[in-house]
């Protein structure tokens, strides 16, 4: 019996030594895990991600409940798990929020939780990131990153809800990020540029695109980056489409020429310039660059490259009156369609495939091509979101196909469907320009067949669409001259912010940045920049 106190003392000594050893080992594991995670973000090598998860899981296991460092370790682990097990990532990050002991730590954990939630119901991510931004008050750079996260969350919510006010909220959050940024102002500027470009894509306000380009140029001047250069070139290309100023297209080409890995975008931009100039040599170079890109690109990125290759080949066929480029274009579209899973991708590719088949029908008069074109264009319309600004153009293309078939076979059903497609395109509010084209095509077709009732309806609708276009131009000029005020520089925590229990997250894009200077190395909680096309930019 006398030996028992000695045994207990020995056990306490062993446990104490073990705790001390764990306290020394855990920070090293966290440092290794954070470094591996940053390396994975740069390399996309699964081995780096596995090493990060393993190190951070071990660090979490060695850190007992109540340890003030546990929240930061769990936050890092949750960030790594986003790319492995999103549902578990949310659970781990929820615990990181619950175990945080100070506002800055809770803000970081909430920011990472918000990142994990972005692929799920976007309103949950917004609520979490509003609190994260509020808790970061007092640290301008951290608050800048939180506002950057919040801006992306508002953008994601717009994609789910279609509420255009969320685009304004995203821009406002990005403005706050710029106002607070000290260390990484180029990233904040690039995020704001992206938000403005996304809003321009929906509303078409010229000032948004012009300011987006100016801000992007500022970001590039401070921190040149291949993805930012690509974004700048894409926005310049959009402004060329808007204004027809060849200087924008020349600058876009010059910028894309400096980045070896951007063959696809360079080829697309060269195709646009060649079509504008009527330069067959440059158009041929665009085709060759697209072919090279299709051969060298990774499998995951083949869909847009094949789609763009089809567009260049169609342009080459139109310029040369050769049919073999059309055959190659149709094959490229079909391969892209076989790889595409996302509904938006499939509807866009089907629309292009349908146009390619119509082009070939115009050369060969093959009924099989015409029927296949109408099938693809019908499917493209069916798969397009009713709110999409692309729907009027796809309906107009479907009407063009049906019109051809009626002209060939005189089937009454085709005549009815032609009118229905054109009529629906004209009544949609998404694009007055696409509606005007559809109504004019309808009116000319009805006039050709001496259907005066339809011709009158079509041309009256065309006039309405033209009036809408004119009104939009006037309204844009008025809005540009009126300006707008920005929101206050702080965000209030919403009532009822407590434990967050999200459901069913998917895989969000990866985060980027630098670890915290104090405490265990903290993986970055700021979110990657999204470009104008929704593609990730490594920060």
Tell me the β content: under 5%
CA-based gyration radius: 28 Å
> Number of helical runs?
22
Helix and strand succession? HHHHHHHHHHHHHHHHHHHHHHEE
Strand order of the largest sheet: 1-2
Task: Give an account of the 3D structure.
- The structure is a single chain.
- With 539 residues, this protein is an all-alpha fold.
- The chain contains 22 helices and 2 strands.
- It has a two-stranded antiparallel ribbon.
- The termini are far apart.
- The C terminus is likely disordered.
SSE inventory with pairings:
Blueprint: H1 3-43, H2 46-62, H3 70-81, H4 86-99, H5 103-117, H6 122-135, H7 140-161, H8 165-180, H9 185-203, H10 206-222, H11 226-243, H12 246-257, H13 263-277, H14 280-296, H15 302-320, H16 324-339, H17 343-364, H18 367-383, H19 391-409, H20 412-427, H21 432-448, H22 452-482, E1 529-530, E2 536-537
Antiparallel strand pairs: 1-2
